[in-house]
């Protein structure tokens, strides 16, 4: 994840010299996409990708950095009330940054292997856990479609692995919560952004078509690499 350093000037009250000191607050910047905006067409339009990346993801980062700077200031002043108040903004905007950074890597142009089914140990694990890749895709698509209009605002569908129990899970999260909020040992392999900003310009209200087509540009190579790293064969 890209990090830039923001120097913040702070008084070192305990400094024997009583000098002003400098401490580094780490903030975040927008990561580049690993492909051109139009490279996922026709599954996802270049217009959507550009807006999603440059506007939506950037806004999460801007607001995350702002909240982190306010947190740093509140902590230096011992302002407990403000520290608590900032937690929701940090979780929402930080989660948005984390989730989108994964989402871009979950996709790949068809000419670069997008949509090619997983091979190796992840392919076997999917067959063992769900019966087949097709069954897994149907399960995730049904979960995404069923949440429409239910009042539960889902932001992401996930395929993850429980690295303690060594099995795959399908989960959904809302409000930009990362998968780890569903369990501390859950590692995301694939996350599908199902907020309207991810598809509405192209698919309007037909979210099932977006969910059907996104698998054509799914980067299973990335998911397999994460799976092999988290669950090495013993
Ligand atoms: Fe998004």
TrEMBL record:
<dbReference type="InterPro" id="IPR036314">
    <property type="entry name" value="SOD_C_sf"/>
</dbReference>
<keyword id="KW-0496">Mitochondrion</keyword>
<comment type="subunit">
    <text>Homotetramer.</text>
</comment>
<feature type="binding site">
    <location>
        <position position="197"/>
    </location>
    <ligand>
        <name>Mn(2+)</name>
    </ligand>
</feature>
<dbReference type="InterPro" id="IPR036324">
    <property type="entry name" value="Mn/Fe_SOD_N_sf"/>
</dbReference>
<feature type="domain" description="Manganese/iron superoxide dismutase C-terminal">
    <location>
        <begin position="118"/>
        <end position="224"/>
    </location>
</feature>
<keyword id="KW-0560">Oxidoreductase</keyword>
<dbReference type="GO" id="GO:0030145">
    <property type="term" value="F:manganese ion binding"/>
</dbReference>
<dbReference type="InterPro" id="IPR001189">
    <property type="entry name" value="Mn/Fe_SOD"/>
</dbReference>
<dbReference type="InterPro" id="IPR019831">
    <property type="entry name" value="Mn/Fe_SOD_N"/>
</dbReference>
<dbReference type="InterPro" id="IPR050265">
    <property type="entry name" value="Fe/Mn_Superoxide_Dismutase"/>
</dbReference>
<dbReference type="Pfam" id="PF00081">
    <property type="entry name" value="Sod_Fe_N"/>
</dbReference>
<feature type="binding site">
    <location>
        <position position="100"/>
    </location>
    <ligand>
        <name>Mn(2+)</name>
    </ligand>
</feature>
<dbReference type="Pfam" id="PF02777">
    <property type="entry name" value="Sod_Fe_C"/>
</dbReference>
<comment type="function">
    <text>Destroys radicals which are normally produced within the cells and which are toxic to biological systems.</text>
</comment>
<dbReference type="GO" id="GO:0004784">
    <property type="term" value="F:superoxide dismutase activity"/>
</dbReference>
<dbReference type="InterPro" id="IPR019832">
    <property type="entry name" value="Mn/Fe_SOD_C"/>
</dbReference>
<comment type="function">
    <text>Destroys superoxide anion radicals which are normally produced within the cells and which are toxic to biological systems.</text>
</comment>
<keyword id="KW-0464">Manganese</keyword>
<dbReference type="GO" id="GO:0005759">
    <property type="term" value="C:mitochondrial matrix"/>
</dbReference>
<dbReference type="InterPro" id="IPR019833">
    <property type="entry name" value="Mn/Fe_SOD_BS"/>
</dbReference>
<feature type="binding site">
    <location>
        <position position="52"/>
    </location>
    <ligand>
        <name>Mn(2+)</name>
    </ligand>
</feature>
<protein>
    <recommendedName>
        <fullName>Superoxide dismutase</fullName>
        <ecNumber>1.15.1.1</ecNumber>
    </recommendedName>
</protein>
<comment type="similarity">
    <text>Belongs to the iron/manganese superoxide dismutase family.</text>
</comment>
<keyword id="KW-0479">Metal-binding</keyword>
<feature type="domain" description="Manganese/iron superoxide dismutase N-terminal">
    <location>
        <begin position="27"/>
        <end position="108"/>
    </location>
</feature>
<feature type="binding site">
    <location>
        <position position="193"/>
    </location>
    <ligand>
        <name>Mn(2+)</name>
    </ligand>
</feature>
């Amino acid at each position: 994840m890209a990090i830039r350093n923001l120097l913040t000037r702070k008084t070192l009250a305990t400094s024997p010299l009583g000098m002003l000191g400098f401490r580094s607050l780490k903030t975040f910047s927008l990561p580049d996409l690993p492909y051109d905006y139009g490279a996922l067409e026709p599954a996802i339009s270049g217009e959507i990708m550009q807006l999603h990346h440059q506007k939506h993801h950037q806004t999460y980062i801007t607001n995350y950095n702002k909240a982190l700077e306010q947190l740093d200031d509140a902590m230096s002043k011992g302002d407990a009330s403000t520290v608590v108040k900032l937690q929701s903004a940090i979780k929402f905007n930080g989660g948005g940054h984390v989730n989108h950074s994964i989402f871009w890597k979950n996709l790949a142009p068809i000419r670069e292997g997008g949509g090619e089914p997983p091979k190796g140990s992840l392919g076997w694990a999917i067959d063992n856990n769900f019966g087949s890749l097709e069954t897994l895709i149907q399960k995730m698509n049904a979960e995404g479609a069923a949440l429409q209009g239910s009042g539960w605002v889902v932001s992401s569908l996930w395929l993850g692995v429980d690295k303690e129990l060594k099995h795959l899970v399908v989960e959904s999260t809302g409000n930009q919560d990362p998968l780890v909020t569903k369990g501390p040992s859950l590692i995301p392999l694939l996350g599908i952004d199902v907020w309207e900003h991810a598809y509405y310009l192209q698919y309007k209200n037909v979210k099932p078509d977006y969910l059907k087509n996104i698998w054509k540009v799914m980067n299973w190579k990335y998911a397999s690499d994460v799976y092999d790293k988290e669950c090495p064969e013993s």
